[in-house]
Prior knowledge:
Blueprint: H1 2-36, H2 42-45, E1 51-55, H3 60-71, E2 75-80, H4 83-96, E3 103-107, H5 115-121, H6 123-127, E4 131-136, H7 153-181, E5 184-189, H8 202-221, E6 227-232, E7 237-238, H9 243-247, H10 253-259, E8 261-262, H11 263-271, E9 279-280, H12 284-291, H13 297-325
Parallel strand pairs: 1-2, 1-4, 2-3, 4-5, 5-6, 6-9, 7-8
Helix pairs in contact: 1-12, 3-11, 7-8
Bound molecules: NADP nicotinamide-adenine-dinucleotide phosphate.
Amino acid sequence: MFGCDCTMxxxxxxxxxxxxxxxxxxxxxxxxxxxxxTPVDLHQLAGNAKWAAITGSTDGIGKQYAIELGExxxxxxxxxRTKSKLESVKEEILKKCSKNIEIDIVAYxxxxxxxxxxxxxxxxxxEKRDVGILINNVGLAYDYADQLHHLDxxxxxxxxxxxxxxxxxxxxxIIPQMLKRNAGVIVNISSGAAYAKMPYFSIYSSTxxxxxxxxxxxxxxxxxxxxxxxxxxxxxxxxxMAAPMIETGIMTQSEVKMMSVNVKDxxxxxxxxxxxxxxxxxxxxxxxxAAMFGLPEFALDYILKFQTKKFSAVALIQREKAxxxx
Length: 326
Ligand SMILES: NC(=O)c1ccc[n+]([C@@H]2O[C@H](COP(=O)([O-])OP(=O)(O)OC[C@H]3O[C@@H](n4cnc5c(N)ncnc54)[C@H](OP(=O)(O)O)[C@@H]3O)[C@@H](O)[C@H]2O)c1
């Protein structure tokens, strides 16, 4: 009987310690990176390599990473789909940037997963430069959420390819030169959608979970090196990708106001977490939103059920619209 009491007490203390750990950890990841930590010198993390390469860099988050890194004095290798947009973003950054930097561009459609094409058109541009920072940002989403069998098959395939192949191939290609310097930064842009099993976003959410899992594993594989490997999981950032969420009514204006961040503030905040947080949402307000994902699974599933009802209503309207247009 006595032994049994001791076991129960030990278990109660262990449970209490676990709950306290979860609470303090939750507070730490909200408060420390955004309110206390001093940003790390990126040139030092990059091993003084002069170039930063950014995928999906003609718009939204990727373009803003390019602007931020240019302002910190890195030369920029912009890799994105549309050559004319790349040329105009290059001109725009060169004109506005307060530092004297070089910018090169590579036009590549990441829907093309053919490795021979990567080897011809993308990898040489990375390999011939001293790249100290790689931002794997390119990503593709749906225009609106729906059940898997209603979604366009080609779009599903494109999302799998664009969200998983470039991050895997470019990371593997850049690591050898970073290991030689025993320094370098790799930032993989995932999404808050990776944190939950999101009905109606099956493929997008799964591809983002892939990025989180992949990046976690890399942090273990290269733990004893000078490489900094970060996952960034944003919630809503006001870019072209987020626009359909507003246009289709998935989010109300007040939800948008409460939950979204403009791209400039978001990236400025996210860049300051490099070398401080191995995984982050990128900014304070998103980190608070992410705290919800620490809820027990049954509570989270319950909340997501309400969300799913809304997705389902919007999907119906969008399907009817599409049918009328045909
Ligand atoms: N915005 C959000 O709320 C949000 C939330 C969570 C996660 N994210 C993630 O953040 C990343 C950036 O999103 P964003 O909102 O900045 O997107 P965005 O505004 O739509 O910009 C996407 C960029 O990627 C390029 N791109 C798209 N498809 C491409 C392809 N097949 N090949 C090469 N480049 C391509 C685009 O080039 P073009 O100009 O030629 O189209 C553009 O430069 C994505 O990985 C996304 O999943 C965004």
